[in-house]
Design brief:
The structure is a single chain. This protein has 4 helices and 8 strands. It is α/β, with parallel strands linked by helices. It has a 4-stranded mixed β-sheet with strand order 1-4-3-2. Strands 5-8-7-6 form a 4-stranded mixed β-sheet, covered by helices on one side. The radius of gyration is 17 Å and the shape is globular. The two termini are about 15 Å apart.
């Protein structure tokens, strides 16, 4: 399993977004000591880590270092303007329904409506509260794209 981690300026705000707006389920909430996190090379003052789970079992980690002033990354205008890991993708059954929900919560969208990328694939990009890009993709034939989900 893959568990991407998002280092947060405001972990509580991010938790609310990922659970209340996106519907991920809370899994765990833990604290790491300054001693362990220093030895581990992650943060000198310890950190808090929350794990959230998707309906398919993947997890997203939200992490907030303690006693560390984070420098917020500049939010680029374009998704592919950032080097490295630039976005998370969630495969959804109905991208238009997700878009309606995102608009209801005032989430920043990269396009007014979902875009058909190729025949049978429709997607939209949004930004979370800290400017991270999130892609929502609907496949007309998910079973042919991800047969592993249907075994």
């Amino acid at each position: 399993p893959l568990e991407p981690g998002i280092v947060c300026v405001d972990i509580d705000r991010m938790l609310s977004f990922y659970t209340e707006v996106l519907g991920l389920k809370f899994a765990t909430d833990a604290e790491a000591s300054p001693k362990m996190s220093t030895e581990f090379g992650t943060a000198p003052g310890g950190f808090r880590i929350i794990r959230l789970q998707t309906p398919y079992g993947e997890r997203v980690k939200l992490v907030q270092p303690r006693n560390t002033v984070l420098k917020q990354n500049p939010v680029p205008e374009w998704v592919f303007e950032r080097q490295g890991i630039a976005y998370l993708t969630f495969i959804v059954p109905d991208v238009r329904e997700v878009t309606t929900r995102l608009k209801k919560y005032g989430v920043g969208l990269m396009s007014k409506d979902p875009v058909e990328i190729r025949e049978g694939i429709t997607a939209i990009f949004a930004r979370d509260p800290e400017g991270n890009f999130i892609e929502f993709v609907e496949y007309a034939d998910l079973a042919s794209y991800r047969p592993d989900l249907f075994r």
